[in-house]
């Protein structure tokens, strides 16, 4: 078990955006109710139709939010990076989860019961505005994603997915290799296409010398051209 001083340090460092707008008493409440959990790759954090209970914060690793559609076809809705918060929208909407979250790789997460979060929000306007901002940004991103997934050609969708991964998770020391390693199936699920189409499009991008693929490692060779393909679809 973590010592209280160590837990406070982790919370203050990783939840810095929230921590700085809390009063000393509110910080004590967060510390007393904060739980750190470790998840293996692929392990479910919460599942569709479950009742929302916690505010989750990704401390280390990567997490994906996804939903199964017609014929159990999976669509990756969002990818989370440290330090991002999730799992609270359904609670505020008074409904069960409409999607599933799972660890994309071995990850460390912090959680605090939503009943505690709600109590803090009712007494702290700055905290309320923080979550309004988070929800508004997520809604704007979802609106953009809907248009892109429904109107862009598969080349545009895959180019956008690769750039999203670069922007979200960054690049290796060579400043060109994505820091996240995704299977062809996951890339397809992120780009709203079949796995076979994802493989064919990746091969086309390699032929055009836009990227270099080595297993699950993808190196971006021509970012300006990828952005052009993403923009014009």
Describe the structure.
- The protein has helices at residues 4-14, 16-19, 24-33, 89-92, 114-122, 125-151, 154-169, 184-191, 195-207, 223-232; strands at 35-39, 44-46, 54-60, 63-68, 74-80, 85-86, 100-103, 107-113, 211-214, 217-220.
- It has 233 residues and is α+β, with helices and mostly antiparallel strands.
- The protein contains 10 helices and 10 strands.
- The protein is elongated.
- Helix 7 packs across helix 8 and helix 8 packs across helix 9.
- The mean pLDDT is 90.
- Strands 1-8-3-6 form a 4-stranded antiparallel β-sheet. The protein has a 4-stranded antiparallel β-sheet with strand order 2-7-4-5. Strands 9-10 form a two-stranded antiparallel sheet.
At a glance:
With 233 residues, the protein is α+β, with helices and mostly antiparallel strands. It has helices spanning 4-14, 16-19, 24-33, 89-92, 114-122, 125-151, 154-169, 184-191, 195-207, 223-232, and strands spanning 35-39, 44-46, 54-60, 63-68, 74-80, 85-86, 100-103, 107-113, 211-214, 217-220.
Characterize the biggest β-sheet. Answer: 4 strands, antiparallel
End-to-end gap: 51 Å
Assembly type: single chain
What does the overall shape look like? elongated
What is the tally of beta strands? 10
